[in-house]
Amino acid sequence: MxxxxxxxxxxxxxVTKTExxxxxxxxxxxxxxxxxxxxxxxxxxxxGDSGGPTFASINGGEDMQARGIIVAGGGQxxxxxxxxxxxxxxxxxxxxxxxxxxxxxxxxxx
Length: 110
What we know:
The chain is mostly beta strands. The protein has one helix at residues 98-105, and strands at 13-24, 27-37, 45-46, 53-57, 64-78, 89-97. Strands 1, 2, 3, 4, 5 and 6 form a six-stranded antiparallel sheet that branches. Strand 1 (13-24) and strand 2 (27-37) form a beta hairpin. The model is unreliable at 1-6 (pLDDT under 50).
């Protein structure tokens, strides 16, 4: 049995689109990636997660790699587990990939 994880890290997502463009709260974002939940027991993103990191394991373990910054949630609203403040959760997360962020700010990842 898999434990629900509505707060903290949201796992078991699959990238379904790349170079996706959309208007998010009146601001046009382009070249986003989109990831969706892979089962009904998880969520992709919760209200308030915007600006947080996205990352993935390289080999299925604890070896994490930066993938981007969360822009918004979308798709279908899904049930969140109880939280201190009322929130909305979604089955899809939109995020800006890490490469444009690194390029724009002249950063590097060690």
